[in-house]
Q: What sequence folds into this?
């Protein structure tokens, strides 16, 4: 499923296409986590990226229309020196990113996903388009090992 | 996942993950094992490698369901891993559930 080598854009670490199926999300996130671990990311950052990625994909899948369900969701990991960008590209109708994200009432059963993403990442951009939407999650200083950055440049 | 009912107590263990893929099953299986008037539900999260916001929602739904049967019920989360603890704190579930070491 994971395609780590076919897209050789500068800084591209990982790219995978995901079917609109909640059951497929965790495996894709684990594959992404493995790639980040191989680049020297710390355990706490790995957990944060894995969870943010899962929340982003779940969100895209849970709110997809019937027609959009046929379209895959794309995950990309990109490195820029020590920093990491996680892109989640979906083909749903998208949504308005809330101006301010806060937790819902303590006993609410839903509505925490975007808050979690924003809390775990250093920067989040949501670009809503006509045919596709890009959720870009940035995490600074993910890779402290200079050799790891060199490895990512070779991919 | 293992669910053991002993009198008015339910013990849940071996929860490998609690996420979108299994949150509904988690709730329905525990509800089915819940006595008519539960006193305590202990959920062992020491084996839980991954928790997401759907899992958080399942824990809350379970608490509300148990309270409908007994308003005084105690639902405890036991031995959560570090990453699970972080999410419980971030989502303020630590104010809703007693969280205890194993």
A:
């Amino acid at each position: 499923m994971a395609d780590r080598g076919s897209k050789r854009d500068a800084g591209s670490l990982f790219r995978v296409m995901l079917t609109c199926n909640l059951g497929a999300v965790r495996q894709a996130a684990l594959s992404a986590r493995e790639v980040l671990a191989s680049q020297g990311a710390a355990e706490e950052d790995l957990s944060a990226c894995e969870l943010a990625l899962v929340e982003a994909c779940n969100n895209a899948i849970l709110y997809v229309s019937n027609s959009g369900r046929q379209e895959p969701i794309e995950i990309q990991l990109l490195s820029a020196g020590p920093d990491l960008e996680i892109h989640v590209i979906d083909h749903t109708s998208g949504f308005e990113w809330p101006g301010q994200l806060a937790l819902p009432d303590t006993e609410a059963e839903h509505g925490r996903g975007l808050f979690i993403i924003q809390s775990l990442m250093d920067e989040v951009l949501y670009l809503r388009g006509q045919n596709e939407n890009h959720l870009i999650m940035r995490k600074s200083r993910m890779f402290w090992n200079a050799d790891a950055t060199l490895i990512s440049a070779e991919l | 996942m293992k669910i053991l009912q002993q009198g008015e107590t339910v013990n849940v263990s071996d929860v490998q993950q609690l996420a979108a893929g299994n949150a509904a099953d988690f709730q329905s299986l525990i509800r089915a094992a819940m006595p008519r008037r539960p006193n305590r539900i202990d959920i062992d999260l020491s084996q839980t490698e991954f928790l997401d916001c759907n899992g958080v929602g399942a824990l809350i739904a379970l608490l509300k369901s148990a309270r409908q049967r007994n308003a005084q019920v105690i639902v405890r989360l036991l031995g959560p891993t570090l990453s699970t603890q972080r999410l419980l704190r971030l989502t303020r579930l630590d104010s809703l559930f007693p969280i205890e070491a194993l």
